[in-house]
Amino acid sequence: MPKRGKNYKAAAEKFDKSQLHEVTEAMKLVCETSRAKFDETVEAHVRLGVDGRHADQQVRGAIVLPHGTGKSVKVLVFAKGPKAEEAEKAGADYVGAEDMAQRIQSENWFDFDVVVATPDMMGVVGRLGKILGPKGLMPNPKSGTVTMDLEKALADIKAGKVEYRLDKQNIIHTPIGKSSFGPEKLEENFKALMEAIVKAKPATAKGQYLKSVTLASTMGPGVKVNPALIG
Questions:
Q1: Which residues contact 182 (CB under 8 A, 6 or more apart)?
Q2: What are this entry's molecular-function GO terms (predicted)?
Q3: Residues 62, 161: contact at Cβ < 8 Å?
Q4: Which CATH superfamily is domain 6-68+161-229 in?
Q5: Burial class of residue 190, CB neighbours in 10 A (0-12, 13-18, 19+)
Q6: Would you write out the chain's pLDDT as a tens digit for each of its 231 residues?
């Protein structure tokens, strides 16, 4: 077990970590137990009753949070010609094609948070699959990051678009804002995310879909939400 600091222990003593809470109460506890000297990110951890090893039980998508994420996001766009110009005008931080792919491969360069590509550039981007994939940076049509409408894609990302996807344990880990947002804004962001996840339930999923839901700030203890009260 990792050693916990004084702040974490003091925060954890404020509530019963095994208790299931309704959303509003849980969000208040998350904010109350966020004690770091920096503005902590608040994340939702959602374990689903699916088996992500099967293609028909994958859960993946993206949503623009009502209040954004509170984070400044750097976007790399793979595009050429007029589409490259469109990306630059729309606020992309980096735009390129083979040159950007080469920079990632040769320099191990990752000064970006999201990768967007036009469909015709996926041949170039596809060669980076083993590098971008493990970092969760590979563009995907389901998350809106493979598109010809770069202006909309960039506007959504800069406004606070987040991607949700299963990890190998069938858990979704997604940021829903900063502790400075306060309980109400965080709750609105959380509800928007959960609505999208519930809507994305695979037709082949059997039994309980929402197995467990936990909210936590970067340095704070996890607060369990009653999944029966969601969706």
A1: 31
A2: rRNA binding; structural constituent of ribosome; tRNA binding
A3: yes
A4: Ribosomal protein L1/L10, rRNA-binding domain (3.30.190.20)
A5: buried
A6: 455 555 555 555 666 788 999 999 999 999 999 888 899 999 999 999 999 999 999 999 999 999 999 988 999 999 999 999 999 999 999 999 999 999 999 999 999 999 999 999 999 999 999 999 999 899 999 889 999 999 999 999 999 999 999 999 999 999 999 999 999 999 999 999 999 999 999 999 889 999 999 999 999 999 999 999 886
